[in-house]
Amino acid sequence: MITVTSARKNYGSFAALDDVSLDIPSGSLTALLGPSGSGKSTLLRSIAGLEGLDSGTVTIQGRDVTNEPPQRRGIGFVFQHYAAFKHMTVRDNVAFGLTIRKRPKAETDKKVDELLEIVGLEGFRHRYPAQLSGGQRQRMALARALAVDPQVLLLDEPFGALDAKVRTDLRQWLRRLHDEVHVTTVLVTHDQEEALDVADRIAVLNKGQIEQVGDPVTLYERPANDFVMGFLGSVARLGGQLVRPHDIALERDRTTALANDAKVPDSPGVIDAVVERVVPLGFEVRVDLRADSGERFAAQITRRDAAELQLREGETIHARAIGRSSVVDVDPALAI
Amino acid sequence: MRVSRATRLSLRLVALGYLFVLLAVPIGVILWRSFSPGLSEFIASVSTPAARSAINLSLLIVVIVVPLNVVFGIATALALVRGRFRGRGLLQAVVDLPFAVSPIVVGVALIMLWGAGGWFGALDQAGLKVIFGLPGMVIATIFVTLPFVVREVEPVLHEIGQEQEQAASTLGANRWQTFWRITLPAIRWGLTYGVVLTVARALGEFGAVIMVSSGFPGVSQTLTLLVHSRYIDDHNTYGAYAAATLLMGIALVVLLLMTLLDRKRSDR
Lengths: 336, 268
Description:
By secondary structure, chain A is α+β, with helices and mostly antiparallel strands. Chain A contains 10 helices and 18 strands. The longest helix of chain A has 18 residues, at 164-181.
C-alpha cells in the first residue's frame, strides 16, 4: 500500500502537485493518467524520492519515507528513456542492485538468469545496451528494477519512446508479468487507451489535482466530471451535454426519435443535424455531423445501422443520446 | 567551379610549402642537429645531471598537477552542469580565463600575490618558498592547465544527463557508489582526453613557469627552462637542440596517445 497525503510541489509559481492525496492498494496496477503538465510524473517521482515534496507525506507499506532518499525506499523505477547503464553489459545492468547490496555471486547470477528468462533476454547477457532495440532495452530496465525485489514498481511512461506495435506488445507483457509477480505497480501514462488496457485502477490527474480514482469501467461509464469523461475516450457535445459517440443514435424519422428519446431521463433531446461526412472505420462507422446551432459532433454507429440508414452527405438526420450512464452535464467554466 | 590543373597544382604547392616551412623545417632542423653528431652524443647531452633533474622536475610537476586538475576539474564540471547556484555564469567565464590571459601575466600576478612583498608574502617569510620554489611552478602550471579537464568533461556530463544516476539511486546506490560506478565510467573518455591535454600543456609550459622559477640548473629547471638556459645563457646550442628533441619526443608520445584515444572514442 502506498499512501500519499496532502502532497504539494511547486516549481516557481507553477503548482505541479496541489494538495494531492492518493491510496494505492497493495498488489494493484494503478495508472496515473493525465495530460502533460498534470503532475502525474511529479507524483510518481515523489513516491520514488527522485523529487522532494514541498509539503505532505509519502508512506510505503506503512513506513513513512517522506525524508528517505530513493535508495532506502524499497522501490524499482523504470524510466521512459530506459536509463540503461551504457558501459555495462545486460548482465551487469540487471545485477547492479544486487552488486551494490554485495550479494554472493552465485545468488546474483541465479537471480539475473531468472529475470532475463522472464523478460526474454536470455541470449543477450553479454550484449551492451547499444546493441539492443528500444523494446529490449526497456525489458532489461524492467528486469533491473525487479532484481532488487522492490516493494513497489514505478514506471514513468515506460512505453512512450517505443513504436506503436512494440508498445502494445510490451503493454500486454507487463500485464501478464504483473499477474505473475503481483508487485504493487504504478504506471504513469498520458495515453488513455494504455491506462484502460493494463491498469486495474486509474487515477486521473489534471492541473496538479486528482480528478477521479476508480477502476477503468467506473471511470469510463460514470466519469465524475467532463474532464474525466473527455480524457477517457472520445466525446461528442450534444445539446449542452457530453455523450460518448457510440451512445448517439441516428434516426431518419423525427417522430420515432422523439418517442425513443422520451424514454431516456434527462436526455439532451433530439438534435437535428446535417451529415457532413461518413467515415468507415472497420467494424464501426463514424458520422461527422453539424447541428442546427452550428456545433459539430461525431456519432459512432455500427456498420449495420449505417447500411440501414443509407446516409448521404448533406442530408439532415435526427440525433439523440442512448441512456444516461455516460452523459455528463457540461460545466460552463470548463469548455472542451 | 572548374579549376585548371595548373591552379590546382600551385594551390597544393602553396599549402604544402606553408606547412613545410613553418612546421616541418624547424622540427627537421632540430632533429638533424640533435642526431647528426651521433646517438651517443645525444644521450650524453640529455643525461647530464642538469638534464636529468629537468626531466624529473617536469615529470614531478605533471604528476602533482594532473590529479589536482582531475579532482577539481570533475568537481567544477559537475557544479557547472548540475549546479543551480548564484555566480554560475561567473564561474563559466573564470574557467576560460587561462585561455585568455598570457602565461607571462600569470607569472607576474603570482609573484605579486605570493612573492616576498605580496599579499601572501608572510608565507614566504615564514620559510615556505612559493615563488622561486616548486609550489610556485605547480601553481603556475595549474593556472594554465585548469580549463582542459573541465571543458572536456562538461559536454559529456551534459550528454549523459542524470537518468542513469537516478536509476542507480533507485537501485540502492548511494551518491559515492553512483559516482564511482556510473558517473566516472560515463565521463572517462572526456576525462582521459582532458588529462592528455593537461599533460602536454604542463610539459610545454614556459612563460608562466620562467617567471616563478629560480632557474638553477639541476635544481629548479624544467625541460623548457633547460632548453632556454642552455641556448641563451650557456651558448650550448647543441645541448639546447638535444633537450628540445627530448621534450618533443615526450610530447609526441602524448600526442600519439591522444590520437589513439580519439580514434577509440569516435569508434564508439
